[in-house]
Design the sequence.
């Protein structure tokens, strides 16, 4: 309970519980025997939204990643937003090392300001090279479900295997972004490098 | 089986030592086992808790990203811990995500995980460990450890304590058998000596002393007491002998004195009697009637005194003369006495009831004197009865003595003088009423005493008397 109450401040508890439950039901459904192909897009992205939130727990950002000590933890979506309400609901009321979460949506890579996790939508598939180049060495964990995104310089790429969402991680990109990822996360991921896509 | 006294003290000491040893051992074993088992229990909980934390830490990513394969592989690492019989990972919503072993019966794990902590259930140690990453709860790990080690250890302790107790008992038996001797041996020796003293009356034995402890003190005291008793006994015997000799000497002296007195009294008495007779023959005519009556009285008195002196001489002879023992047929002797008394019985109406009397051993003349005295007494004191009844009986009351009794229906006597009857010159009746010197019963007592018997009498005034005496049985 102690652990729970640490993450859930007293006042907003009931609401967060409901959010939790909703996410839980989604997770259960997605991992069930129906598989993703039969699921609506929003269900797939609800799970991906939860994963985005979980990446935050297993990754360390350098101190200069935040403008101020009370700056929020920003999860950005670049391009067409496939999450709908799911992402906002997932991070609603959660805290990350005392920081609130914020979800921001960008049309162009130039719009990306203070951001810790950036989900690059499939709509940006053709611009991916420009985007990664633009982001450069900024301490942003880039995530995308564009095909071969990891090989193309994105740190984390969602893939669907046997109706389950897995992910590939590009360690070089992570290193460039000066991000440290927990070995626990690396264990459940597939490691790729540009030479070995 | 009743233990002999010697066996009992040995057994008691051995039993005391053994019991003490067993009690101490039991307490030690139980205390040690309890402490160790409690420590083992605590250790098991700590180990499981540590293991739980490690496994929970390794399960975070698997739970967060719902990777069943990874979760299963994390749990399968529990194979290295044989005491873990089952494990389960619950997800954030409290649903079972993965189990170890992979296929578990439904309902084996609780449907809803506990928030944390351990519990002992169904011979299992069950631990719930929260799975937390970066402060966010991702799920719960449940570990089930068998208590095999615990029960194994318990069994080892049970076996070990049986082994230790049996072994220690054997050792204690051996040691106590040797050690108890230091206590029991002096006591047994003391008991043996006491037995010798009690059974054989042997006061010359001494108990052996083994050490200068309390038992040594007891032995010393016992030996000192033996010396004392031995000494007292010897002194007492010596003193009794001395006194007896003194008494015998005095008695002999008295008897000799009375004999010589009696004997010497006879001569002047005979002179008195002789000269009175001569005086009567020569000068009776010159004396008046009262003078002649005086002479008569002097003569009678002299004769009576002569009788007294004769009886006294008989009495003293009875005490002094040698006894010539032989077998005497009592019935014949009684008949002989009655024949000799025939003159006294003339004109009397006496009913005699004489039982058959056994043979005895003794001095024929002395025993005859006893019967003469008792029978003539009976005849004498029934003089005033129209029909006298005299009864002679014999009882064999015990193994050693024969009891004779002579009963009459004569004058009898007052029981308060029963003992005086047997005294010398003791008379309960006036000589005018019943003649006699008063020495007959004294003679009876003396003779019977010399034969090792007893005399006594029972009677009532005017209701007859019974005289008893005993003689040792013939071998």
Sequence:
């Amino acid at each position: 309970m102690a652990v729970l109450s640490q993450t859930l401040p007293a006042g907003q508890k009931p609401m967060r519980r409901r959010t939790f439950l909703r996410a839980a039901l989604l997770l259960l459904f997605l991992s069930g025997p129906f598989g993703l192909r039969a699921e609506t897009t929003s269900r797939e992205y609800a799970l991906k939204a939860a994963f985005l939130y979980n990446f935050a727990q297993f990754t360390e950002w350098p101190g200069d990643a935040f403008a101020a000590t009370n700056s929020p933890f920003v999860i950005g979506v670049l391009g067409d937003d496939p999450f709908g309400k799911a992402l906002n609901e997932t991070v609603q009321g959660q805290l990350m090392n005392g920081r609130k979460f914020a979800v921001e949506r960008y049309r162009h890579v130039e719009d990306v300001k203070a951001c810790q996790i950036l989900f690059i939508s499939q709509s940006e598939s053709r611009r991916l090279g420009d985007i990664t180049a633009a982001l450069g060495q900024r301490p942003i964990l880039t995530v995308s479900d564009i095909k071969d995104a990891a090989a193309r310089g994105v740190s984390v790429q969602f893939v669907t295997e046997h109706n389950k969402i897995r992910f590939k991680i590009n360690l070089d990109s992570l290193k460039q972004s000066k991000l440290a990822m927990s070995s626990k996360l690396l264990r459940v991921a597939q490691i790729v490098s540009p030479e070995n896509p | 089986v009743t233990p002999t006294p010697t066996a009992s003290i040995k057994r008691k000491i051995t039993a005391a030592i053994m019991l003490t040893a067993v009690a101490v051992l039991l307490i030690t074993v139980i205390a040690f086992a309890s402490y160790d088992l409690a420590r083992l229990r605590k250790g098991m909980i700590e180990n499981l808790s540590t293991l739980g934390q490690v496994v929970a830490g390794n399960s975070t990513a698997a739970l967060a990203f719902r990777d069943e394969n990874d979760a299963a592989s994390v749990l399968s690492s529990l194979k290295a811990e044989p005491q873990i019989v089952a494990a389960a990972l619950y997800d954030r919503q409290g649903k079972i995500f993965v189990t170890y072993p992979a296929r578990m019966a439904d309902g084996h794990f609780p449907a809803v995980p506990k928030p944390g902590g351990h519990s002992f259930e169904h011979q299992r140690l069950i631990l719930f460990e929260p799975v937390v990453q970066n402060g966010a709860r991702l799920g719960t790990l449940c570990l089930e450890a068998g208590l095999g080690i615990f029960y194994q250890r318990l069994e080892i302790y049970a076996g070990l304590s049986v082994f230790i107790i049996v072994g220690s008992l054997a050792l204690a038996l051996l040691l106590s058998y040797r050690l108890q001797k230091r206590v029991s041996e002096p006591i047994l020796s003391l008991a043996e000596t006491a037995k010798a003293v009690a059974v054989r009356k042997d006061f010359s034995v001494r108990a052996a002393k083994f050490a200068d402890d309390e038992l040594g003190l007891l032995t010393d005291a016992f030996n000192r007491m033996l010396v004392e008793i031995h000494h007292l006994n010897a002194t007492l015997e010596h003193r009794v002998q001395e006194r007896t000799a003194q008494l015998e000497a005095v008695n002999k002296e008295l008897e000799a004195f009375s004999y010589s007195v009696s004997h010497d009294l006879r001569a002047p008495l005979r002179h008195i009697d002789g000269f009175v007779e001569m005086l009567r023959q020569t000068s009776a005519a010159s004396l008046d009637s009262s003078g002649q009556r005086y002479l008569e009285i002097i003569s009678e008195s002299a004769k009576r005194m002569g009788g007294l002196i004769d009886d006294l001489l008989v009495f003293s002879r009875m005490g002094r003369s040698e006894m010539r023992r032989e077998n005497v047929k009592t019935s014949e002797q009684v008949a002989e006495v009655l024949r000799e008394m025939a003159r006294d019985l003339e004109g009397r109406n006496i009913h005699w009831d004489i039982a058959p009397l056994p043979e005895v051993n003794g001095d024929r003349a002395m025993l005859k004197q006893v019967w003469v005295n008792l029978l003539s007494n009976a005849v004498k004191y029934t003089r005033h009865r129209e029909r006298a009844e005299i009864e002679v009986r014999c009882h064999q009351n015990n193994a050693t003595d024969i009891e004779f009794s002579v009963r009459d229906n004569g004058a009898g006597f007052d029981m308060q003088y029963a003992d005086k009857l047997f005294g010398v010159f003791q008379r309960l009746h006036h000589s005018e009423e019943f003649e006699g010197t008063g020495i007959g019963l004294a003679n009876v007592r003396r003779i019977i005493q010399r034969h090792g018997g007893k005399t006594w009498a029972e009677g009532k005034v005017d209701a007859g008397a019974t005289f008893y005496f005993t003689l040792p049985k013939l071998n």
About this structure: The mean pLDDT of chain B is 87.
